User: What shape does this take?
Amino acid sequence: MNSNSSCIIEQFGRLVDLTDKEKSLLRTLEKDPKHYASGDLICEAGSSAMCFFTLQSGWAYSTRVLADGQRQVLDIFLPGQLMGVRDIGFNRSLSDFVALTDVEACPFPQRRITEVFAESPRLTDLLFLVLGREHAMLTERVINLGRRPAAQRLAHFILEMKVRLNQFEEEFELPLTQTIIGDALGLSSVHVSRTLKELRQNQWMHFSDGVVTINDLDAMVDFSGFNRTYLDSLVDWPRCPADS
Amino acid sequence: MNSNSSCIIEQFGRLVDLTDKEKSLLRTLEKDPKHYASGDLICEAGSSAMCFFTLQSGWAYSTRVLADGQRQVLDIFLPGQLMGVRDIGFNRSLSDFVALTDVEACPFPQRRITEVFAESPRLTDLLFLVLGREHAMLTERVINLGRRPAAQRLAHFILEMKVRLNQFEEEFELPLTQTIIGDALGLSSVHVSRTLKELRQNQWMHFSDGVVTINDLDAMVDFSGFNRTYLDSLVDWPRCPADS
DNA sequence: CGTGGGGTTGATTCTTATCAATTCGGGTGG
DNA sequence: CCACCCGAATTGATAAGAATCAACCCCACG
Assistant: This one.
């Protein structure tokens, strides 16, 4: 992709063949890119100027900070993702959004998405689909947190990342600290370190300096109870004829 | 409500004033009620005949069973709720649906909802809103599972139920066994029992025979870190003029 | 060179699961 | 009415899992 192309178009284009009109509609969401440095707060929980963001480049995460200072990471966002759709239907953001790496993101008011999608039923469907996918991931995370011990939880998380990144290589980049991983999985960073060591000693995978190496994918899948279908089996959805 | 009235209409009617057309559209979703006895499997995970259900009366839950037999309860459904929207965008159900009590539910094919909502942009908005609400609850559950110890988790769960039931009385019915509660909260039933005892001894609440009594609401809210806004602050959403 | 953030390791403590035994209450059948 | 059974709830003992605390290493960076 050239650097000015819309990542959203690329993402959506994987799901449906977009018409030119749809593409130009989507492009209107990405008019105004802003830059955030690694660690920057992109959007604070409770801020009433409810915004969505398209993530042009870089990684981000959303998180909630509890009264006692504990954090729960709710989502990790990859380039091309829409951030904030989770809070659709609320008039304020329910979580903080933070840049994990240097980030280019385009904020736009919630209202805009309504306008765009009102013009194209097919894009509306796509939004449902994207929401469904997010919902499925969140559901899987509930299972992960509720019913799997640390090692399986971590293995499952790594595999989910691998699938989300469409990574078929053994090795891929994962720019997360062990603290962030812990906050996503409900574990302490110390325990993440120990658990990573365990996975390493089993010769299943390796993680350091933000690079994951999967040595034994089958073992990982088997051990963690990972089920690909929940991300793969997206319905053959577009029911509307492409609008002109 | 009279026994034949649409629960969905009642639910949606709380959010917007529905036009007659919208009401009759919604009513088409509830033509064919079926009865399920307590404990019946309403819909099995992976079943390809992807259906939604409107829950006319009674309670239900959705659950996933892991390879080792552990269960995670994903959702508790109240009368009037739409079941299955979570799996929108997938061509198969991702979880089992089970009746908690005797249940009247109306199954309808996923396609139907698309048809209905295609006819009314405002209902489409409402569906987004409902999905957003479910998403918010799931998010809150992630935080609950990831970052709160058993007692706070349980207290939070009870409060969420209270809010969802619009219950302002001290006492309300909650037809769940301790096993189900445990499976929802990632705890063993034994530990649920112990933890309930703890809350009881603190004079905060009491639960037995499917009836909850809240003795000290403030203490519960404070202790569990419960935040009402996440269910209350639904945006003043309907952007479309009511269609004729 | 210091300094600080991230990672590793070990010791200790707390939380929760697991197992086993007991109680309680509601059917069911004699 | 009683004996029996069954599912649910309770309780205690034990074991596993994970947090916390503290020390230390490593390395990038001023």
Q: What stands out?
A: The two ends of chain A are 25 Å apart (CA to CA).
